[in-house]
């Protein structure tokens, strides 16, 4: 009974969420199935490339979801979510790097190739434990979470808000980007981590493994979605929204605003880290380019385009923008125009579509309902009119 | 006898030309057309004795391997690099007259070996040391210090006798010391060590350390205790002096970086600090200024020195105009929604960058005028680039002018009125929407001016703006929003801290430390170094 009502509260009561989760389940079942079961030349076959591509989009959707949780529901515009994503990715990359073992170019049993290349003779302490999958997965969540906790605790406690917060998150991203580009930092410098062989003993090149990672991405996205719904529909979620809309008033009512902010910021960073960890085995590389401030800002436009403060808007926005990006940058004719289009989106959405794409649907629905209501009104008189007004 | 010849040669009078058959350059240069290197050495010595302003050019060309014989008319020519058609630009060696470009196949190079090169070097040093122009003599002395040569000792001694300028004498003494330090005469060595102790030459440090070095048993390799003592003393002197100069150098480069940061950030201090608008396209306003410099130079290709001055007002207009357009079309709709402003202006920045990339995806070359290139050489540790010195002065001028505009003009008064209380300003008859546009235009225009200056120290290309945007925001936030003085202190202190960290930890780590420092600093003082007090504080 309780379970039913919880499901009702989290998913079924919200049209957008219902459709999004249903669509994700369908993708999670159909894409791997069509990839594995259909023969190569078949009309229904989904190519390996497409599986990896859609998998990548799902990771981006999870990242967008994480940002929507803090931006849409708590009004914290983080320009550093790309950094949390990349940190999760690096943690995963370190595990995959250790899995290579002595199959690297230099054949060293313990050290990754780039360390041998730099003449290091022992593994740095922060690489210890990453040969263990579960430890690595813990780190995927712990490292971005810890950074977000410390950063958020410092920032929110001193009431750094609004654009100031955005700017210092960007500075954080820039600092991390510079650091990861350094060879001496111990994460492969410019080239990052790549040449991965297998994960938990299964080859990363095989279709089966890729399908499993794909399904994991879908599950992670759905799971995170439900977690976010749980947070935003709870009493805590109500407080978050009131922080977004009137921070001082919430504080005067007696809530410790900074605690709520730190909590939601940390959760969001953990989700971004998970997205990064799922992203790395699907694209096969993680390098400091992922820390680029542009990446973090792009995430914001996914959320803004889809519609912030709705969760499903973020998922839809991430998928739409990235499909468009692949389409534009993939064709020689349009590749020059992609940045123009992206720039135009940044300009036009805040002015003309502040609530995002999902708002168009809502507006349309409202109009539809209204016209239906007036139709009904014209037929029935008296009490019906009272009812609609 | 030899010494006398040299002396006379230095005075430019030749009484006894020893090997020369012809006493003019046109005749003497012909002696170089031989296979024998020893004959070439003689010819070089002879040329060195001739009193002709072209001699130096010929010898320099010979040393650089740029002296050719024209295969057709057997004339000697000097190569001056390749023309755009792949031909060699040449001038006549004897007259210095410019000749038509020629294919490299039609020239045969005068080959030289180390002996000829040495002879050319001696002759060149001799001519340069006796030049009337002080800076030529100084340059020659610097070259002698860089690569000491025992054979040139007599030359240096002779030059010392004739030299009157104290700076050149000092340099000659150092050059002499670098030669004498290896002599067998103990007295000469000690005095050389003492002279070296007065310099900051890094090579002097190595030489002195060599003297002091000990073998495996801890015995000094140098036997003479007196020499060891004086070497120790000199080394100590050099090191303390060097660290002082290093300090001054870091301070200068820190000030220079600070003034660059200040220039980049000062426009932002207006748009962000005064208006509260986050302009992520600020870097691209700088870029527009830099591209304006480039286009002005394209219009006046032969007027580099003046075109850069002309670029300053033009860049202000170009960037300012773009700024006004952005304000009128985009930002106007987003007042009171700072996060959306951030996104929209970021979109503007992407579009402007891509426009620059569509024009030319590479960096465009911006030339530096003569009066900006070069440097003020004090010693081997201290060297101030003119361009950095000008930028320090320029940034201060911009800051001063801007302060005057804000404090003393009617527009400045209106701006301050609107930022302090928009409703009240409106009811006093100020058209606040126009003031907004002009303020934004002013901030953008200042960024354009910064672009002119920055085009002289870095690449001008589509990515120019991105390199400055984060730094600019850091300076403004660190200094305190809404406060030009804060921006000044923010820029200068961040620049100096950065440059003092750099030698210790490297450039990248220094930058990371500064970024982390600012992040932590903002936690401590969220309103920056110079926070505005009173009602401003409330958003």
Number of helices of chain B: 21
| Mean pLDDT reading of chain B | 83
Relative helix content of chain B: 55-70%
Helix content of chain A: over 70%
Secondary-structure blueprint of this entry?
The complex is a heterodimer of chains A (389) and B (539).
Chain A: H1 2-12, H2 15-37, H3 48-74, H4 81-100, H5 113-117, H6 133-157, H7 162-181, E1 193-194, E2 198-199, E3 202-203, H8 207-233, H9 235-245, H10 247-253, H11 257-283, E4 285-286, H12 293-306, H13 312-330, H14 338-352, H15 357-379, H16 383-388
Antiparallel strand pairs in A: 1-4, 2-3
Helix pairs in contact in A: 2-8, 3-8, 3-11, 3-12, 3-13, 4-6, 4-11, 6-11, 8-9, 8-11, 9-10, 9-11, 12-13
Chain B: H1 2-10, H2 25-29, H3 37-49, H4 55-64, E1 67-70, E2 76-82, E3 88-92, E4 107-109, H5 114-129, H6 134-146, H7 153-162, H8 166-180, H9 186-197, H10 202-212, H11 225-274, H12 282-299, H13 304-329, H14 338-359, E5 375-377, E6 383-385, H15 386-408, H16 410-420, H17 422-427, H18 432-454, H19 466-479, H20 484-505, H21 507-524
Antiparallel strand pairs in B: 1-2, 1-4, 2-3, 5-6
Helix pairs in contact in B: 1-7, 3-5, 4-5, 6-8, 7-8, 8-9, 9-11, 10-11, 11-15, 11-18, 11-19, 11-20, 12-13, 12-18, 13-18, 15-16, 15-18, 16-18, 19-20, 20-21
């Amino acid at each position: 009974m309780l379970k039913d009502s919880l499901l009702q509260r989290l998913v079924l009561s919200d049209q957008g969420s219902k459709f999004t989760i249903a669509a994700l389940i369908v993708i999670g079942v159909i894409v791997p199935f069509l990839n594995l079961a259909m023969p190569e030349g078949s009309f229904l076959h989904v190519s390996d490339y497409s599986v990896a591509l859609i998998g990548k989009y799902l990771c981006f959707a999870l990242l967008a979801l994480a940002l929507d949780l803090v931006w849409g529901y708590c009004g914290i515009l983080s320009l550093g979510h790309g950094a949390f994503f990349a940190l999760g990715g690096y943690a995963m990359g370190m595990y995959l790097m250790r899995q290579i073992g002595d199959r690297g170019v230099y054949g060293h049993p313990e050290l990754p190739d780039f360390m041998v290349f730099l003449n290091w003779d022992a593994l740095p302490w922060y690489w210890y434990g990453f040969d263990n999958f579960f430890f690595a997965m813990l780190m995927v969540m712990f490292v971005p979470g810890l950074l977000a906790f410390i950063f958020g605790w410092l920032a929110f406690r001193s009431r750094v808000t609004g654009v100031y917060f955005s700017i210092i998150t960007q500075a954080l991203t820039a600092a991390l980007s510079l650091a990861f580009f350094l060879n001496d930092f111990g994460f492969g410098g410019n080239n990052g981590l790549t040449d991965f062989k297998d994960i938990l003993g299964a080859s990363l090149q095989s279709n089966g493994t890729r399908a499993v990672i794909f399904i994991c991405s879908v599950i992670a996205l759905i799971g995170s979605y439900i977690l976010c719904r749980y947070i935003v529909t709870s009493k805590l979620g109500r407080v978050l929204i009131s922080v977004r809309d009137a921070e001082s008033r919430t504080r005067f009512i007696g809530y410790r605003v900074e605690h709520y902010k730190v909590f939601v910021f940390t959760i969001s960073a953990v989700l971004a880290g998970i997205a990064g960890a799922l992203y790395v085995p699907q694209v096969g590389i993680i390098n400091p380019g992922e820390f680029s401030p542009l990446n973090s800002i792009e995430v914001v436009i996914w959320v803004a385009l889809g519609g912030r403060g709705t969760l499903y808007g973020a998922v839809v926005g991430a998928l739409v923008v990235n499909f468009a990006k692949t389409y534009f940058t993939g064709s020689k004719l349009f590749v020059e125009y992609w940045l123009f289009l992206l720039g135009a989106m940044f300009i036009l959405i805040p002015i003309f579509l502040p609530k995002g794409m999902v708002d168009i649907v809502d507006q349309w629905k409202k109009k539809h309902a209204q016209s239906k209501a007036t139709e009904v009104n014209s037929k029935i008189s008296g009490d019906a009119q009272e009812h609609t007004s | 006898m030899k010494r006398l010849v040299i002396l006379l040669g230095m005075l430019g009078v030749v009484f006894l030309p020893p090997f020369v058959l012809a006493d003019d350059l046109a005749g003497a240069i012909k002696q170089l057309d031989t296979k024998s290197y020893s004959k070439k050495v003689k010819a070089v010595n002879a040329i060195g004795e001739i009193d002709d302003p072209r001699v130096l050019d010929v010898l320099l060309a010979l040393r650089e391997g740029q002296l050719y014989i024209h295969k057709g008319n057997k004339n000697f020519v000097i190569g001056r690099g390749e023309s755009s058609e792949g031909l060699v630009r040449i001038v006549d060696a004897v007259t210095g007259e410019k000749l038509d470009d020629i294919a490299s196949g039609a020239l045969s190079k005068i080959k030289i070996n180390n002996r000829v090169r040495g002879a050319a070097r001696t002759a060149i040093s001799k001519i340069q040391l006796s030049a009337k122009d002080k800076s030529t003599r100084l340059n020659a002395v610097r070259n002698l210090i860089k690569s000491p040569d025992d054979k040139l000792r007599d030359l240096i001694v002779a030059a010392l006798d004739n030299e009157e300028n104290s700076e050149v004498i000092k340099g000659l003494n150092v050059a002499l010391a670098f030669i004498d330090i290896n002599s067998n005469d103990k007295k000469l060595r000690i005095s050389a060590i003492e002279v070296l102790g007065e310099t900051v030459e890094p090579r002097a440090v190595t030489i002195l350390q060599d003297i002091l070095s000990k073998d495996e048993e801890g015995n000094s390799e140098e036997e003479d205790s007196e020499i060891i003592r004086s070497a120790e003393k000199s080394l100590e002197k050099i090191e303390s002096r060097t660290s002082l100069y290093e300090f001054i150098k870091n301070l200068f480069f820190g000030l220079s970086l600070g003034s660059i940061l200040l220039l980049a950030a000062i426009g932002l201090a207006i748009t962000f600090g005064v208006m509260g608008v986050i302009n992520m396209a600020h870097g691209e306003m700088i870029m527009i200024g830099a591209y304006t410099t480039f286009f002005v130079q394209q219009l006046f290709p032969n007027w580099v020195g003046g075109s850069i001055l002309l670029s300053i007002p033009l860049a202000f207009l170009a960037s300012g105009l773009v700024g006004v357009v952005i304000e009128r079309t985009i930002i106007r709709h987003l007042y009171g929604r700072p996060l959306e402003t951030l996104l929209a202006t970021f979109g503007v920045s992407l579009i402007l960058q891509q426009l620059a990339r569509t024009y030319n995806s590479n960096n465009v070359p911006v030339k530096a005028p003569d009066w900006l290139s070069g440097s003020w050489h004090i010693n081997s540790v201290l060297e101030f680039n003119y361009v950095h010195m000008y930028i320090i002065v320029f940034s201060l001028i911009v800051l001063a002018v801007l302060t005057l505009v804000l404090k003393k003009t009617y527009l400045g008064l209106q701006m301050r009125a609107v930022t302090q209380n928009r409703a009240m300003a409106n009811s006093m008859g100020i058209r606040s929407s126009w003031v907004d546009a002009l303020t934004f235009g002013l901030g953008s225009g200042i960024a354009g001016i910064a672009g002119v200056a920055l085009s002289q120290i870095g690449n001008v290309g589509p990515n120019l703006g991105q390199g400055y945007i984060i730094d600019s925001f850091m300076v403004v936030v660190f200094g305190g929003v809404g406060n030009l003085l804060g921006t000044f202190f923010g820029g200068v202190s961040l620049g100096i801290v950065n440059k003092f960290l750099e030698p210790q930890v490297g450039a990248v780590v220094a930058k990371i430390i500064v970024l982390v420092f600012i992040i932590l600093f903002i936690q401590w003082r969220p309103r920056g170094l110079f926070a505005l007090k009173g009602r401003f504080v409330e958003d």
